[in-house]
Design goal:
Layout (H helix, E strand, L loop, with lengths): L2 H6 L17 H27 L2 E2 L7 H7 L1 E2 L1 H16 L2 H6 L1 H15 L15 H19 L8 E2 L2 E2 L9 H19 L3 H5 L2 H11 L3 E5 L8 H5 L6 H8 L12 H5 L5 E5 L3 H8 L9 H18 L8 H23 L3 E3 L2 E5 L2 E2 L1 H39 L6 H13 L5 H14 L2 H14 L4 H13 L3 H13 L8 H14 L3 H8 L9 H13 L3 H14 L4 H13 L3 H8 L7 H14 L2 H12 L10
Parallel strand pairs: 2-3
Antiparallel strand pairs: 1-4, 5-6, 7-8, 8-9
Helix pairs in contact: 3-4, 3-7, 4-10, 6-8, 7-10, 8-16, 15-16, 15-17, 16-17, 17-18, 18-19, 19-20, 19-21, 20-21, 21-22, 22-23, 23-24, 23-25, 25-26, 26-27, 27-29, 28-29, 29-30
Length: about 625
């Protein structure tokens, strides 16, 4: 065959169509517009709250926690319930078209593609269960724990309006950090929808709801396997493989963005109803491919749990969702560090860290960063261990009225000492424990630091005032106690307690008339028994016996057979000159009136007539054997 003829014959490989670049999805623009509209509505909701002072409760799935824990049926719970029901039928549409974090992740992915970066998705067979674990912890565990403790479930009540819209949300700075980590950084490292895959608790519920939904992306016979759908998908779904093997997209990571349907050159993809994907997948029994060995999976899981233990609640600032995102990132970075240390070649996304056994500059820098990360996680674990143990001991001390507070005190001393930041909760806990111990000067120092962060906390200011008074700064302490009392609602159960704290300080300064005037504002019949007795004791110490008797008599009426109460009552009766009149009145009581005669025995004892008191006691003790003898 001549060379000329050979040149005229077409080569076989030239007969194959050249791969074409997928066109841009037109639905992507519509979805972007919808997601922008979602953010506009969120902004409008916040503005309405700021202007009107009250507004509808946040339309946020996390608000369902309040419904399950407190019984408040709010807008967030209604939304979450409707979304779960719709996902069970139509599939996972909300995530792709209504979630603000998906919007941020897609924005990050779009920005990266503009500069030529397409992050490789991180595929772990264990971390994919994190969203389900998070959902269980947030929405199921509180009810289970309540049932285990024997506590009754709360009664559900409508709670659709609020005047504190931001009550359940983190601070503005932490919110921005959450968006930066869970919306951008996690995409750079773990690929598109990284937070949806490894952190989102709502996505964990939607994922399994989608698996049984009849609504799926499906395929016709026109499909030629060009792969445009997979190249366009921003949810890390291998669409062309799924439709070839199952006739539909069975991966519940599919968020129904519909980009694959739009870019298909043959129009072979569509959304429609049919058999649920979970049935189809089980029937085909196709093996899955994973990027990690079993050993690496275990390393990643342990790293994630350590990071979550270390980071959640660190400095009383990192909330659960942010901690989930950070923990997934830490687990991935530590896995990369392990591969760099063990393998001849290693990469972090597009960056080559090690080649042919030699470290690149970027690899050396990364290993230095990894060492710092390990050190920080070890430090954070140590700090959070002491915080959690300290909090547990502190709560036990309050609930069980334990006198031993040394464990809680030591734990919080370590946590506060190791924190580079001023953490209001830790400072206030340490201040309260030091005040309980009697170290008022140091207590005042820590409570003052806590108040610099949260000056509107009335209980904190009250404790600070007490610490100042007991440390010798009485004038300043009284000012703080008065400020705390002025800000306390008189109907609040703590009002009387705070008033007693102020009157005690006033008595210590010799301002007994002011103290008596304040105490007389209390209605003895409306306050707790302990408060009545404390007020009576204060007034006795201030030599205000007439007023003291009023509180003691009210305490006697509430506990007519309490020997300690009767002893105090008889003492105030003697001091106020009412003793003889009360005895003359009481001896007229019928013999069967045990309460009156028992009180009379204490009156005779206060007069100094122990013989008559003993005779009365002996007589009524035959009727009530367990009575305590008057003293």
């Amino acid at each position: 065959m001549s060379r000329r003829l050979t040149r005229q014959l077409p080569l076989i490989h030239n007969q194959r169509p050249k791969p074409t670049k997928p066109r841009a999805s037109r639905r992507g623009k519509w979805r972007a517009a919808v997601l922008i509209g979602v953010h506009v509505l969120i902004a409008a909701h916040i503005v309405h709250w700021k202007v009107a002072g009250t507004t509808m409760t946040p339309v946020e799935p996390s608000e369902a926690m309040q419904t399950l824990e407190l019984g408040y049926v709010n807008a967030g719970f209604v939304l979450f319930a409707l979304l779960i029901l719709s996902t069970l039928v139509f599939g996972r549409f909300f995530c792709g078209w209504g979630c603000h974090l998906v919007a941020l992740q897609d924005l990050c992915g779009w920005m990266l593609r503009k500069i030529g970066i397409r992050p490789k998705p991180f595929r772990s067979r264990l971390l994919v269960f994190v969203p389900l674990f998070a959902a269980f912890y947030m929405f199921a565990w509180p009810s289970i724990a309540r049932a285990m403790s024997g506590e009754k479930a709360p009664r559900w009540v409508a709670h659709f309006m609020t005047d504190d819209f931001w009550a359940t949300f983190p601070t503005f700075g932490i919110a921005i950090l959450t968006f930066a980590v869970c919306g951008f950084l996690i995409v750079v490292l773990l690929g598109n929808k990284g937070f949806c895959t490894y952190g989102c608790p709502y996505g964990g519920i939607f994922y399994y709801a989608d698996s049984i939904a009849p609504g799926k992306i499906r395929v016709t016979d026109a499909c030629d396997g060009c792969g445009h759908c997979t190249a366009t998908c921003t949810s890390n779904v291998r669409v062309h493989d799924e439709v070839r093997e199952f006739g539909m997209v069975v991966d519940s990571g599919c968020m129904k963005c519909m980009d694959c349907v739009d870019v298909c050159p043959k129009g072979a993809l569509y959304w429609g109803f049919g058999k649920p994907g979970i049935i189809k997948r089980r029937a085909e029994k196709q093996p899955r491919k994973y990027d990690l060995s079993l050993g690496e999976e275990g390393f990643v899981a342990v790293s994630f749990l350590i990071a979550l233990y270390s980071l959640r609640g660190l400095y009383d600032a990192i909330p659960f969702l942010l901690a989930l995102g950070l923990s997934a990132i830490c687990a991935f970075l530590l896995l990369v560090a392990l591969r760099v240390a063990r393998n001849e070649n290693a990469r972090l996304q597009r960056w080559q860290l090690k080649a042919n056994g030699k470290f690149k500059r970027s690899g050396a820098a990364f290993m230095l960063f990894s060492a710092c990360l390990i050190f920080f996680l070890a430090y954070a674990s140590y700090v959070m261990y002491h915080v959690r143990e300290g909090e547990s001991a502190y709560e036990a001390m309050l609930i069980e009225s334990q006198s031993d507070h040394s464990a809680a005190l030591n734990h919080y001393r370590i946590a506060v000492g190791l924190s580079p930041f001023l953490v209001e909760k830790w400072e206030s806990r340490l201040g309260a424990l030091l005040l309980f111990e009697g170290d008022s000067e140091r207590a005042a120092k820590h409570l003052r630091r806590a108040l610099s962060v949260r000056g509107d906390d009335i209980e904190l200011r009250f404790m600070y005032g007490r610490a100042l008074v007991t440390s010798g700064e009485t004038k300043l302490g009284i000012e703080q106690l008065e400020l705390a009392l002025d800000r306390t609602d008189p109907t609040d159960a703590k009002f009387a307690q705070r008033l007693l704290g102020l009157t005690s300080a006033l008595n210590g300064e010799g301002r007994v008339d002011e103290a008596e005037s304040l105490l007389l504002k209390l209605n003895p019949s409306e306050i707790a028994q302990g408060t009545r007795l404390a007020a009576a004791v204060q007034l006795i110490q201030a030599k205000k016996f007439e007023s003291a008797f009023g509180f003691a008599d009210s305490a006697r009426v509430s506990a007519p057979m309490d020997s300690q109460v009767l002893a105090l009552w008889a003492q105030t009766a003697a001091m106020s000159g009412k003793l003889d009149d009360l005895i003359r009145e009481n001896v007229r009581a019928p013999a069967e009136d045990i309460e009156t005669w028992y009180a009379t025995a204490f009156l005779y004892m206060a007069r100094g007539d122990s013989e008559t008191a003993s005779q009365i006691y002996s007589r009524i003790r035959r009727l009530v054997p367990n009575l305590v003898a008057p003293q």
